[in-house]
Automatic annotation (TrEMBL):
<feature type="transmembrane region" description="Helical">
    <location>
        <begin position="186"/>
        <end position="207"/>
    </location>
</feature>
<dbReference type="Pfam" id="PF00528">
    <property type="entry name" value="BPD_transp_1"/>
</dbReference>
<keyword id="KW-1003">Cell membrane</keyword>
<feature type="transmembrane region" description="Helical">
    <location>
        <begin position="12"/>
        <end position="34"/>
    </location>
</feature>
<keyword id="KW-0813">Transport</keyword>
<comment type="similarity">
    <text>Belongs to the binding-protein-dependent transport system permease family.</text>
</comment>
<protein>
    <submittedName>
        <fullName>Carbohydrate ABC transporter permease</fullName>
    </submittedName>
</protein>
<feature type="transmembrane region" description="Helical">
    <location>
        <begin position="240"/>
        <end position="261"/>
    </location>
</feature>
<feature type="transmembrane region" description="Helical">
    <location>
        <begin position="135"/>
        <end position="157"/>
    </location>
</feature>
<keyword id="KW-0472">Membrane</keyword>
<feature type="domain" description="ABC transmembrane type-1">
    <location>
        <begin position="72"/>
        <end position="261"/>
    </location>
</feature>
<feature type="transmembrane region" description="Helical">
    <location>
        <begin position="72"/>
        <end position="95"/>
    </location>
</feature>
<feature type="transmembrane region" description="Helical">
    <location>
        <begin position="107"/>
        <end position="129"/>
    </location>
</feature>
<dbReference type="InterPro" id="IPR035906">
    <property type="entry name" value="MetI-like_sf"/>
</dbReference>
<keyword id="KW-0812">Transmembrane</keyword>
<dbReference type="InterPro" id="IPR000515">
    <property type="entry name" value="MetI-like"/>
</dbReference>
<keyword id="KW-1133">Transmembrane helix</keyword>
């Protein structure tokens, strides 16, 4: 009985922490997004006396010649391209690193792990992109996002790959499959759980990225959704109701995506934990 009570107590604490950390700030954003300029300046949790949902939404969307719509387009293109490249490269790298073991394997593992530890350097990255002619281009920003997500993706794919028997590879080779055909026709379809995990988690991270587009893809026409927050705040004046409405609009797409694919994320994260 006492064990059950302790379990219920732990669950209660977890629920309360979730409410405090996530739902109260989210409620704060919602209520202030519905207020007018004067009432939202108080930054309170009280419900608005009169709601201004459509007025605030229209003002946010039309601000700076419909900048938010261009930002949604830029963020969507960036996310889709980055995810496609990231999944293909990480899947192939994870497959090779798990299947092949030689003297270079420990060094490859070390380099991948170091990618999770060593922080990215802004100025050298800009210097490299500028030298390649990719600075202020979508291609350069996609390469940056892929490079930052590569270590995490490779580790997930490598862990999951250990659960796929080597006999499948051997049977395919005996049947005359080439290396690429073996990977794309047989192995890659088996990686759907971990692929779903990488797609959802990386999509949310890339779509909500603020730092990389700010440094590597500057310009009003190149703005992504997070950079549109500058439209309603400055050094001296901040339109809090429009700022919170902007936050609400750019938060909903990744939030809905995360909620719908939550079970697949958990399945993909734990799929490679049995064998390693």
């Amino acid at each position: 009985m006492s064990k059950r009570i302790r379990q219920l107590g732990g669950e209660t604490v977890a629920i309360l922490l979730t409410i405090i950390i996530f739902w109260i700030p989210f409620y704060f954003v919602i209520v202030n997004a519905l207020k007018d300029k004067k009432e939202s300046a108080l930054l309170s949790l009280s419900w608005p006396s009169t709601t201004h949902l459509w007025e605030n939404m229209k003002a946010v969307i039309t601000a700076r010649d419909y900048m938010l719509l261009r930002a949604f387009y830029n963020s969507t293109v960036l996310t889709v391209l980055s995810i496609v490249v990231l999944v293909m490269i990480c899947a192939m790298a994870g497959y090779v690193m798990q299947r092949r073991t030689d003297r270079a394997t420990p060094w490859l593992n070390f380099l991948v792990l170091s990618g999770l530890i060593i922080p990215p350097a802004i100025v050298p990255t800009i210097w490299v992109l500028n030298g390649l002619g990719l600075f202020k281009t979508m291609t350069g920003l996609v390469l940056v996002e892929v490079a930052l997500g590569f270590p995490f993706g490779v580790l997930l794919y490598k862990g999951f790959m250990a659960t796929i028997p080597r006999e499948i590879d051997e049977a395919a080779v005996v049947d005359g499959c080439s290396g690429f055909k073996l990977f794309y026709k047989i192995i890659l379809p088996l990686l759907q759980p971990v692929t779903a995990t990488i797609v959802v988690t990386s999509s949310v991270g890339i779509f909500n990225d603020f730092t990389n587009p700010l440094y590597f893809f500057p310009g009003a026409k190149n703005a992504t959704v997070q950079l549109t927050l500058y439209n309603f705040q400055s050094q001296f004046v901040t339109q809090w109701n429009l700022l919170f409405m902007n936050i609400l609009l750019i938060t909903l797409p990744p939030l809905v995506l995360f909620i719908f694919f939550n079970k697949k994320i958990v399945a993909g994260m734990t799929a490679g934990s049995v064998k390693g």
